[in-house]
Amino acid sequence: MKIQQQVTNLELSKRMKELGVKQESLFYWVKGEMIYGYEGEWSIKESDKWFIFDHEVGKKKWEDYCFEVDGGDIGTTDEEYLKWDKRVKKAKKKMREFIYPAYTVAELGELLPSGIKGDNGGKAYLNLDKLENGDWEISYSEPIERCTVNPFKGSLVNAMAQMLIYLKENNLL
After folding, report:
1. Are strands 115-117 and 123-130 parallel, antiparallel or unpaired?
2. Rounded CA separation 139/2 (Å)
3. pTM (2 decimals)?
4. How far is it, in rounded angstroms, from Cα 15 to Cα 120?
5. What gap in Å lies between CA 54 and CA 31, rounded to an integer?
6. What does the pLDDT look like over 38-97, one tens digit per residue?
7. Coil vs helix vs strand at 83
8. pLDDT, tens digit, 9 for 90 and up, residues 53-64
């Protein structure tokens, strides 16, 4: 199974960031291109392409990796280095605008509550159902009444993301 099938899609990841969902994940959608260099070193170059990045590669966070910066080398003098370092910091800041957590099913399972207040005043519990066509349906329901919250369908990870967005948008968390 490809990693793209195991994490939230880019559209849902963007929406969750807008809604203030916790911005920690094992994977991230990153806008740019990975440029591989000498002895396994690499950098991220600006681009219109999106890729999924594992932020724990080599036990570093994505911010610890170098970014390709227009304007040349590090330089040989302190002044040249400081100019270069300033450009790197600016590039990293700009890149943060184009990074979105790509949540896994396990991460969303931790974020979704086991229950919410139901329509009839009782507790509505989280339900995950696999449909015959292979899609997943996620909903909250009270023990007697089904579908307190309209079900969301699709891949398990994206159905869970849609539910989390719904709960945030409707102040149900």
Report:
1. antiparallel
2. 26
3. 0.71
4. 30
5. 14
6. 555 556 667 788 888 776 543 344 444 444 444 455 555 667 666 666 666 666 666 667
7. helix
8. 776 543 344 444
